[in-house]
């Protein structure tokens, strides 16, 4: 063995040069092209969304199972009282998780997002309504439709405080004053 080690020739300079050539070849590799980076990013996003959907579906399934178990227990209370209680189950029952922070944030921002969306839409329609041509005609029609919907919603949301019989004028006359009386905005003075 000592003879083999003595006969072994090892050139340190040659070894260093070979390693430098090897690493130089690695450095010459092209960086990730922008189109490939976009495709890779899209794949990562799609896979993440898909995985999130699968997890969400699993949670929904667990919630449905828990709801069905609860329903079965509530529909058959005499049966459960007559049978002896089972031994303590070592596995804990499913507890639905609290809403994720992202869901809570989305619910908190939803009114502001709706108001912003409505304001942007209204501004765009008003701008387009001031132009000539088919786009202007369509915008004016959309604004009229929105006005009708808002008016209908205001009429539909009125709270009746008094009955029509209590507020009706002599001679069974119904007018705006009677309507205001039923909504509680006007006292009956007739």
UniProtKB/TrEMBL annotation:
The keyword Transmembrane helix applies. Residues 76-96 are annotated as: Disordered. Residues 83-96 have a biased composition (Pro residues). The chain crosses the membrane at residues 34-56. Keywords: Membrane, Transmembrane, Transmembrane helix. It comes from the Bacteria. This is Uncharacterized protein. It comes from Pseudomonas panipatensis.
């Amino acid at each position: 063995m000592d003879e083999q080690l003595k006969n072994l020739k090892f050139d340190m300079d040659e070894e260093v040069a070979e390693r430098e050539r090897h690493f130089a070849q690695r450095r010459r590799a092209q960086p990730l092209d922008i189109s490939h980076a976009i495709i890779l990013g899209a794949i990562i996003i799609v896979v993440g969304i898909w995985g999130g959907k699968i997890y969400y579906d699993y949670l929904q399934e667990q919630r449905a199972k828990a709801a069905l178990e609860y329903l079965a227990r509530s529909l058959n209370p005499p049966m459960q009282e007559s049978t002896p209680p089972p031994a303590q189950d070592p596995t804990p029952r499913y507890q639905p998780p609290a809403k994720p922070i992202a869901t809570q944030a989305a619910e908190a921002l939803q009114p502001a997002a709706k108001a912003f969306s409505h304001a942007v839409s209204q501004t765009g329609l008003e701008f387009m309504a001031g132009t000539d041509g088919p786009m202007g005609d369509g915008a004016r029609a959309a604004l009229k439709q929105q006005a009708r919907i808002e008016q209908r919603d205001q009429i539909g949301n009125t709270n009746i405080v008094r009955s029509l019989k209590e507020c009706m004028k002599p001679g069974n006359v119904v007018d705006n004053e009677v309507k205001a009386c039923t909504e509680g905005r006007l006292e009956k003075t007739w």
